[in-house]
Amino acid sequence: MSASGDRRAAPPEAASAGGLDRPHPTSAIAIQASGLSAGYGGREVLQDVSLTLHDGEILCLIGHNGAGKSTLLRVLFGLHRPSAGRIAVFGQTLANHAPAALGAAGVALVPEGRGVFPDLTVEEIFGLALWSAGVPKSGQRERIEEVLEVLPRIKEFRTRRAGTLSGGQQQMVSIGRALLTRPRALLTDEPSIGLAPKLFQDLIRPIAELRRSRGMAILLVEQNVREAFAVSDRVLVMRSGRFIFEGAPSELDDHARLMELF
Ligand SMILES: Nc1ncnc2c1ncn2[C@@H]1O[C@H](COP(=O)(O)OP(=O)(O)O)[C@@H](O)[C@H]1O
Ligand SMILES: [Mg+2]
Question: Which long-range contacts (CB under 8 A, 24 or more apart) does 75-82 make?
Answer without folding.
Answer: 75/33, 75/36, 75/38, 75/46, 76/31, 76/33, 76/107, 76/187, 76/219, 77/102, 77/107, 77/109, 77/187, 78/102, 79/109, 80/38, 81/38, 82/36, 82/37, 82/38, 82/46
